[in-house]
Amino acid sequence: MSPSQVFAAVDDDEAHIRALIARWARSVHRGDIDGVLAGHAEKLTMFNVAPPYEGIRSRAAYRVIWPPLFAWQALGARFDIESLDVTAGTDVAYAHALVRCGTPGELAERPELRLRLTFGLVKEDGEWVIAHEHHSFPHD
């Protein structure tokens, strides 16, 4: 593979990862559990803002944590990615994002507040999947 082919592959991988995360965020905003689960590894690990604080360790456990967030989102909360940085290797990648996440009242009270997301991705059968997520808010 020539150097230009390597760079093109990396750019293509980054574009695929950005698209995967954008689809995920749109699914979160819509409350679409199947869309949220799509593109995630079976052995997913996630550390979230909400319990369980020891994290979850499977896609099945990941499915269970979303309904309360979807109910909160139905109150008019936002979940909008403001920035997303991606670094991709040949079979491992990571990404981090800042998300405007909150109800209109919460965002009016604290307009600077952003949810911080970190993703670890791996290639499985030639496709990028999310194998790790970490969600956090800054602690005051």
From TrEMBL:
Superkingdom of origin organism: Bacteria
Gene3D superfamilies the UniProt entry points to: 3.10.450.50
SnoaL-like domain segment(s): 17-138
NCBIfam families: SgcJ/EcaC family oxidoreductase (TIGR02246)
UniProt protein name: SgcJ/EcaC family oxidoreductase
